[in-house]
Amino acid sequence: MSRTPRIEPYEGPAGGWGSVKSLVRHAHQGERLLSSPALLSKQNKPHGFACVSCAWAKPANPHPAEFCENGAKATFWELDRGRVAPAFFEEHTATELKTWDDHGLEAAGRLTHPMRFDHARDRWVPVDWDEAFAEIGRELSLIRAEDPKKVVFYASGRASLETSYMYQLFARLYGNNNLPDSSNMCHETTSVALPESIGQPVGSVRLEDFDQADAFFFFGQNVGSNSPRMLHPLQQASRRGAEILTFNPLRERGLERFTNPQEPIQMVTGGETRISSEYYQVKAGGDIAAIAGLCKAVFALDAAAMARGEPRVIDPAFIESETSGFEEFAGFIAGLAWDEIERESGLGRAALEKAAATYAKAKRVIGVYGMGLTQHKHGVSSVQMLVNLLLLRGNIGRPGAGICPVRGHSNVQGQRTVGISEKPELVPLDLLGELYGFEPPREHGLTTVDACKAILDGEVTGFIGLGGNFLRAVPEHGPMEAGWPKLRLTVQVATKLNRGHLFNGEVAYLLPCLGRIEIDAQATGPQVVTVEDSTGNMHASRGRVAPASPHLLSEAAIVAAIARATLPEVTTVPWTDWVADYGLVRDAIERTYPEIFADFNARMDTPGGFPRPLPARDREWRTESGKANFLLPKAMSASFQESADPDELRLITLRSNDQFNTTVYGYRDRFRGIEGTRMVVLLNAEDIARMGLSDGAEVTLETSVDDGVERRLPGLRVVAYDIPKGCCGAYYPEANVLIPLWQYAEQSKVPAAKSVPVRVRAGT
Ligand SMILES: Nc1nc2c(c(=O)[nH]1)N[C@H]1C(S)=C(S)[C@@H](COP(=O)(O)OP(=O)(O)OC[C@H]3O[C@@H](n4cnc5c(=O)[nH]c(N)nc54)[C@H](O)[C@@H]3O)O[C@H]1N2
Ligand SMILES: Nc1nc2c(c(=O)[nH]1)N[C@H]1C(S)=C(S)[C@@H](COP(=O)(O)OP(=O)(O)OC[C@H]3O[C@@H](n4cnc5c(=O)[nH]c(N)nc54)[C@H](O)[C@@H]3O)O[C@H]1N2
Ligand SMILES: [Mo]
Q1: In a 3-state reduction of DSSP, which class is residue 716?
Q2: Any idea where the Molybdopterin dinucleotide-binding domain is (predicted)?
Q3: Is 272 near ligand 2, meaning CB less than 6 Å away?
C-alpha cells in the first residue's frame, strides 16, 4: 500500500467508481476473494449475516447487494488471510510491536491461539484454553474475595445479544455493575438525553419513515463514511425532492453528493444525486446556538403567520396535549439575542432563517445526528435542543418524522438493551435476581471515564475486554498507557491484535474468538446470533465461512467458561446448555425482557428484523411528566469555555473513510483528498496565514489546558481545509493523546472528543 502522502481535493461523489476501486484493493487483503461476491450477497440479508461494520437498519426488501464500501471492507478485514499465530510472537516482542502503527498491528492478521503474556520474555506465548480459564477464574475469585467492585467488564459493541446477555449476567453474579461499553464514548449522551425528552433511550424512527419524510436535518453525522447504506434511502428522498439540511463544520462529501454503485446507469453515465440541499458549516460545539437560532426564526415565522391570520407554523394542538415545558422554552428563546446566537454557532442570522423556513415548510421532518452532537461537554443539551426543534411542529410520533441517532457498532444499541449498562436503574435487576436466585448489586457501576480514573488510582485491579481496543479508544493515552500495566489481571477477547494488547497486567490473557461471519458450531449444530440495529429492529445472523483457526472459541463459549471457572458455586445458570444452544439464551432474554423480545426465537428471521416497541412513536411518553419535554440547554456553547486567545483552537477528532474506529484499514481518506498519511491537522487557510504557518508545514498540537499534564502530538502536517476559523481537525485515535480525561459530557460522561482546546506550534 502506497504511503507517499498525497493531499488534493477530491472531486468525485461518495460511492461511485471510487468506492468500487477501493473495494477491489481491499478484497485482496481478504482471504476469500473468489468467494467474496457470493459471500457479500449474504450480507444484511434474511438468513445471511449481519454486517460487522455499522448499525444502520437492514431493509426487508434488500438491494441485490445490501452492503456498502465500508461494510465490505469490514468483511474483508475479518476474513484476513494473515494469521497472528504463536510464531508471530516468537518474532516480535511487545516492546517492538509498540512501535508499529494501528494499521500494521491489525493488518498482521487474525489471532489463532489463546495466549498468556510472559513479562520476562516481553511477549505473548501460547497456552491451553483450560489452563487459561482456570487461572482467570482463580484470579477473578481472589479479587472478588477482596472487593467485587475492583473488576471492570468492558464490551465494545459487536458481541451478539446472546453473548451480551450472558456477559452482563456474569458481571452481576460476580458482584458489580461495572459494565461500560463503547457506548460510553459514543451515544451514551443519547441514552441520557432522550429518556428525559421523550421517555425512551433510543431513536423514534424506523426505516419506512425515511421514505415518507420531506426534510432531514443532519447534525454531526458523516453518512458517507460511517453509515453509507443510509445513502440509499437518502438518495431516494433527494430524488423525491426532500430537503436535506446538513450542519457540520466540515464539508463532508457523502453529505454533498452520491453515485449509487448499485445503479448501473448512474455508474456508467457518471450521474450523481445531490444529498444536501443546504449545508451549514456550524462551529464545533455551536449546535445548541444554531438550533436555538432555528427555533427563534420558527417563532418569528409563527408570529408573522398569526398576524396575517394564516395557519400557525408551530403546532399548538400537539404542544398543548403532548408536551410539557413549552412556555419556559418559548420564553428562553425569546430572551436570546441574535448576536449571541451568531457568535456561538458561527452561522449568520440570514442562513439560520433560511434553514428555519425550510423546516417550517416541511410536513414531516427527521432529525439525524451522530458524534458531532454527542461528544461535547453539553452534548446532552445539544441532543435535547434537536428534540425541542422537532417538538415545535409535532415532528415526533407520526409517520415520516422523528429523532434518529445513528448508532455506531453493529450491536451497540442491542448490548444496552440486554443489560450491558453501568446504570442499575436501566436493568430489571429484581427479575434477574428472581430468575437466577441471587441478590444483584444495586450500586452504580463505572462508566468508561470512571473506569479510566479508577485504573489510574489503583481502585480497579482487573479488566475484562469483550472486544474493542479500550486503551486506544479512550482519552489521555499518556497516563493511561503508563498506568495500565499496574493492573493485576487483564483479559482481552479479540479477533485481531491491537495496541491495547501490548500493555498488560501482571496476569494477562489474549483470547481469540470467532467473528460474526464465521460458522459457530456448537454441540447442537451451527448457531444463530442476533443483533439490534439503529432503528430498534432485531435481526438474526448466521456465520458463513470456516473459522480462521480451529482453536478459536465463540465469544459466548469464552464468557461461559470464564463464568464457570470464577463462580463454580452458581448452579442456577445453565452456562453449558446455553453454549450448546443459543436458542436457550434467547428464551432467557425473552423471560427477562418480555415486552421487547416476545416470541424471540420464532421472530428472529423476520425480514427487515422484528421491531422493539418504540413508545414515543405512538406518542406514549414514558417520562416523569408523562409528556414529551421541552428542556432548556445548560449553556449556549456545547464546548468548554472559549478562550479570548484566537490561537486556541477547537480540535475535532475525526474518522477517515478508511478506518473503523481504532481499526485503520488503510491510508486513503478519499473524500477528504488525504492519502498516504493520517498525521495531518486540517486548518482554515486564514488561521494558517494568521499563525504564520503554511500549507504542508510540520507542526505539533498541544492541549491548551493548565492541569500539570503535558499533552502533545508532534509530526503533523498542515492541510488547508474548508473548516470554520477557530476549529481544526485531526484523526482519532492518533489525537486521543490530546484529550484530557476530565473533559467529558456532563451527565453522560462521553469524552468530549469533538472540541479539544489546542494550540498549534511550528516544528516538533
Ligand atoms: N466506516 C466506518 N463506519 C463507522 C465507524 C467507523 O469508524 N468507520 N464507526 C462507527 C461508530 S462506533 C460510530 S459511533 C459511528 C460514528 O459516526 P459519526 O457519528 O458520523 O462520527 P464521526 O465521524 O466521529 O463524526 C461525525 C461528524 O461530526 C462532525 N462534527 C464534529 N464536531 C461537530 C460539531 O460540533 N457539530 C456538528 N454539527 N458536527 C460536528 C464531523 O465533521 C463529522 O463529519 O460510525 C460507525 N460506523
Ligand atoms: N478521539 C476520539 N475517540 C473516540 C471516538 C472519537 O470519535 N474520537 N469515538 C469513540 C467511539 S464512538 C467508540 S464506539 C469507541 C470505539 O472503541 P472500541 O469499540 O473499544 O474500539 P474498536 O476500534 O471498535 O475495536 C477494535 C478491535 O475490536 C476487536 N474485534 C473486532 N471484531 C471483533 C469481534 O467480533 N469480537 C471481538 N471480541 N473482538 C473484535 C479487534 O481486536 C479490533 O482490534 O472509540 C471512541 N473513541
Ligand atoms: Mo461509537
Answers
A1: strand
A2: 649-757
A3: no
Joined grid coordinates for residue 92: 516480535
Tell whether 336 and 243 lie within a shared domain.
yes
Buried b (16+ CB within 10 A) or exposed e, 612-624: bebebbebebebe
pLDDT for 263: 73
**What residues contact 21, with CB distance under 8 A and at least 6 apart?**
none
pLDDT at 65: 76
- Is there a single domain that holds both residue 697 and residue 658? yes
Give the mutation target among 19, 70, 102, 222 for probing the ligand 1 site: most ligand atoms within 8 A of CB: 222
pLDDT in tens, 559-603: 999 999 999 999 999 999 999 999 999 999 999 999 999 999 999
Q: Are residues 45 and 154 in the same domain?
A: no
Contact yes or no for 333/631 (Cβ under 8 A)? no
Number of domains in the chain: 4
- Cell numbers that stand for 54 in this block: 455499522
Closest CA to 597 of 536, 642, 644: 536
Give dist(CA 56, CA 54) in Å, integer. 6
**Amino acid 35: pLDDT:** 59
- Which among 54, 78, 102 is the end of a domain? 78
What pLDDT is attached to residue 444? 97
Categorize the per-residue pLDDT at 269 as very low, low, confident or very high, splitting at 50, 70 and 90.
low
Q: What is the CATH number of the domain that holds 365?
A: 3.40.228.10
Whether residue 33 is predicted with pLDDT greater than 50 in this model: the reply is no
Please report which residue ranges of 28-85 form alpha helices under DSSP H: 36-40, 69-78
Last residue of one domain, picked from the residues 346, 378, 406? 406
Mutate which of 51, 495, 503 for ligand 2? The one with the most ligand atoms within 8 Å of its CB, which is 495
Nearest atom in ligand 1 to 290's CA: 38
Pocket test for ligand 1, best of 53, 54, 657 (most atoms within 8 A of CB): 54
56 with 96, same domain?
Answer: no
Q: Which residues form the domain of 418?
A: 84-185+411-515+547-571
Residue 713: beta bridge partners? 701
For helices 129-146 and 555-566, angle between their N-to-C axes, nearest 10 degrees: 50
C-alpha cell at 738: 490530546
The helix (run of H) or strand (run of E) holding residue 246 is strand 243-247
- The answer to whether residues 324 and 243 belong to one domain is yes
Following DSSP, what letter does each residue of 184-211 receive, concatenated?
GGTTHHHHHHHHHHHS-SS----HHHHT
Residue 370 belongs to a domain: yes
| Per-residue model confidence as pLDDT tens digits over 658-701 | 999 999 999 999 889 999 999 999 999 999 999 999 999 999 99
The rounded distance, in Å, linking the Cα atoms of 295 and 301 is 10
Give CA–CA dist 501/62, Å, rounded: 38
Kindly report the number of other CB atoms within 10 A of residue 644's CB atom: 6
| 394 within ligand 2 shell (Cβ under 6 A) | no
At 270 the pLDDT is 67
Phi, psi of 198 (to 5 degrees): -125, 5
Sorted by sequence, the CB contacts under 8 Å of residue 1 that are 6+ apart come out as 666, 667
**φ, ψ of residue 338 in degrees (nearest 5):** -60, -35
Distance 142 CA to ligand 3 centre (A): 33
362 and 447 share a domain?
no
Q: What is the pLDDT of residue 34?
A: 46
* Residue indicated by cell numbers 429492529: 537
Check the CA dihedral 288-382-471-670 and report its sign: negative
What is the rounded average pLDDT for all residues in the chain?
94
388 and 456 belong to one structural domain: no
pLDDT in tens, 122-140: 999 999 999 999 999 999 9
Supply the residue whose CA is at minimum distance from atom 15 of ligand 1. 408
Statement: residue 643 has pLDDT above 90: no
Do residue 244 and residue 377 come from a single domain? yes
